[in-house]
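Table S2 (text version). Query chain:
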Amino acid sequence: MLTALAGAEFRRYATYRQATVAGAFTNTVFGFMRCYILLSVADVTGQVAGYAPGQLVTFVWVGQGLLAVVNYWGQQELPERVRSGQVVSDLLRPVDLMAGFLAADVGRAGHAMLTRFVVPVVVGLLFFDFYLPSHPWTYALFAMSVVLAVLVCSLCRYLVALTAFWLLDIRGALMVWVVASGVGSGLYFPLPLLPDWLVTLLWVATPFPALMQAPLDVLVERGGLVLVAGQVAWLLVTAGIARVVQRRALRRLVVQGG
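Corresponding structure-token output:
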């Protein structure tokens, strides 16, 4: 059943061809902008926050590709179904609500990996000198790290979606999530540019670096198993929190007369 849900979501996104092309084009354009900005700083200082020019290039372009794969914005069908009451029919299905949400998001991420990830990375390879990992196992660690990033981000978005059981309109919560996760995950700039105490706080106290900074640092070989282990830990934490919040949300639905 979960495999069927993932496949259905993959096919659903495959029908949005124009949106896929437009998204890949936009990510590529911003890739040039971000890359030239960071490289201009590296031309003066020789490096940026410990990243050599080649590592910066890989960080930017692979990050642009991962943007749609990890997907901070994601699907918003669940909050709307909660608001309309249609979530009751979801609860009658033989698939757990959280498991169904994750399965669908994995299908979406699979489509993005084959389309939105490939285009920016290929363009970056054509125009810039990438840093390529010196160890073959780095690629396997990177793949594992990307899967973990998708799952952690999906669980975080699921938690944001669950606030609909209390708020009905989640636009405020969603805005807070998008801003905080973007700044705290390395989406806009490498986290080492921030003060050391703040970087440590983000890694230890939030799941944000597990979404983007971790897989990119794994790829440019600024961390390996330790970063992946941290992602696994955050996956367990967010899954546990999501399970507790879901249980309370469903009890509230009953109290509301659902």
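Notes on Table S2: The chain has a mean pLDDT of 90. The chain has 13 helices and no strands.
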